[in-house]
Design brief:
single chain, about 375 residues, alpha+beta, Rossmann fold, 2 domains, 6-stranded mixed sheet, 21 strands, about 25% helix, elongated
Length: about 375
């Protein structure tokens, strides 16, 4: 188990983080400059914060009060920095063996075991410049694991790789986590990668830990507005709670009343509470005229598509309502995301007026003022 409690202040930035990590893969997710890499460097012993404590399996690595600050080589931490940091003059074997101590036969066995596990045993004699980016990343991973670490730190290890190689290494890292049964801290600002790999996602913004939870919880129930924006919520609508009845919350947005479900992560919202309604673009449905939906189970709204954007794997549709608007401060009311086959099958390029459906459980409420 890894226990982190660290704080450090610069003139223009403050890092404050408290986190406990078991034998799981935690993704540190957030924008560049949010403190993700700095957290890894603190655990590795490459940065000393002003205040705090780092404890690994009951062993104190750093304690600002007692003055404990173990050097990196004494921490039993496997660390893969950005750029891999391989020695260009050493072979693959020598890179992985670097820093190992003990009988040469044992070092040879351990190095070849890890090269085999990452699929590079036949390339042990090559140098880094003779390898692809994915192969270099595997060498860096084998070197970090050959020391038999108690925790593994991966700092955006896949960001520079092509999609097929990145997919292969994502599978490798996930499998290794299950086999090693140690804490793994993985830094990324790629949301899809975070969701794919994480047991839990820790969302950082400007040095603060905003939310920690399973990927689905963070994605669909963001605890704060900043988290909602970071995880890709494109519809954030200001509203007011009108009341609660057996059908759910009655929510007034603009001049329209919608149904929503209570937020499981916040206390019950009283009538009159100001809220922000988070609605993911992919959770808004286009209603086919030949397949009407029951209005008692859906929020049905009529309007027209006034613009769109083609992302290749999806289309973003900008939808303006007929009658009272939800968002008078912009040209459209909601953004809808549909896959290409839906776009083509419904003829959305030709037919622009539609009814849309928003399920009450797809409306996630955050108390206003949490920005």
């Amino acid at each position: 188990m890894l226990e982190l409690e660290i704080a450090h202040t610069w003139p223009d930035f403050h890092l404050e983080l408290q986190l406990t990590i078991g034998a799981e893969l935690i993704v540190l997710f957030g924008r560049s400059g949010s403190g993700k890499s700095l957290t890894l460097r603190t655990v590795a012993g490459l940065f000393r914060p002003a205040f705090g404590r780092v404890v690994l399996n009951g062993r104190v690595l750093f304690d600002s009060q007692s003055g404990v600050n173990l050097p990196p080589q004494a921490r039993r931490v496997g660390y893969v920095p950005q750029g891999y940091a391989l020695f260009p003059h050493l072979t693959v074997f020598e890179n992985v063996a670097y820093g190992l101590r003990g009988p040469s036969a044992e070092i040879h066995r351990r190095v070849m075991e890890w090269l085999d596990r990452v699929g590079l045993a036949d390339l042990a004699g090559r140098r880094p410049h003779q390898l692809s980016g994915g192969q270099q990343q595997r060498v860096a991973l084998a070197r970090a694991l050959a020391i038999q670490p108690d925790v593994l730190l991966l700092d955006e290890p896949l960001s520079a790789l092509d999609a097929p190689t990145r997919s292969e290494l994502q599978t490798l890292i996930r499998n290794l986590q299950r086999q090693l049964n140690i804490p793994i801290l993985f830094v990324t600002h790629n949301l899809a990668e975070a969701i794919l790999l994480a047991d839990r996602i820790a969302v950082l913004e400007r040095g603060r830990l905003l939310q920690v939870g399973p990927p689905k919880e963070v994605l669909h129930h963001p605890a704060r507005v900043e988290v909602a924006r970071l995880v890709g919520v494109r519809n954030l609508l200001r509203g007011q709670v009108r009341g609660l009845d057996p059908e759910g919350l009655r929510l007034l947005i603009g001049e329209r009343e919608l149904r929503a479900r209570p937020n499981p992560l916040v206390p019950p919202l009283p009538a009159g509470a100001e809220v922000l309604a988070c609605i993911r673009a992919e959770h808004i449905a286009i209603v086919r005229p030949d397949r009407p939906l029951p209005p008692e189970r859906e929020n049905l709204l009529e309007g027209e598509i006034i613009g769109e954007m083609d992302y290749g794997l999806a289309r973003a549709l900008f939808f303006r309502l007929h009658g009272p608007r939800l968002t008078p401060d912009r040209d459209y009311d909601v953004e809808i995301e549909v896959p290409p086959y839906i776009y083509e099958r419904l003829g959305l390029d030709r037919i622009r007026c539609w009814t849309i459906a928003i399920r009450p459980e797809s409306i996630h409420l955050i108390p206003a003022g949490s920005e």
